[in-house]
Amino acid sequence: MAAIWPERYNRYNAYGVTYSAELIRVLEEWGGSCLPVDIGLAGGEDVRLGPDLLLQVLHVPGHTPGHLMLWEPHERVAIIGDALNGATQIDRDGAWTAPPPYTDREGYLASLERARVVRQVSRDGVAAWERVAG
Prior knowledge:
The chain is α+β, with helices and mostly antiparallel strands. It is 19% helix and 21% strand. It has helices at residues 5-8, 21-31, 105-114, and strands spanning 46-50, 53-59, 68-72, 77-79, 89-90, 96-98, 123-125. A hairpin with a 5-residue loop joins strand 5 and strand 6 (96-98). The chain is globular, with a radius of gyration of 17 Å.
């Protein structure tokens, strides 16, 4: 949690906008303990997960500077997390709630181009929202 805290949660402190001490405590608790990283990825790597499964790692900044997407070209499966939110964030009922939190507009636009493979996706994985394909 300490690694992402400045980028994600302290961004607006200079403007007097911050989180309550209680919410900070809850977020730190949810973050859990730090774990060692076995391999660092930046985009451009291939990750083999078995004899027949090779994932391509794509760097897709915009939502966060280090966001990554995994692409399996044979089955056309994209694992994008919340890298490509579209025009809005939605709640559980599908109602629009807020603009997506992009930190880098130009990076996000470049990521849309880099992730153009998802236009032909057969299955995808989205971490926080319902499935979006195409």
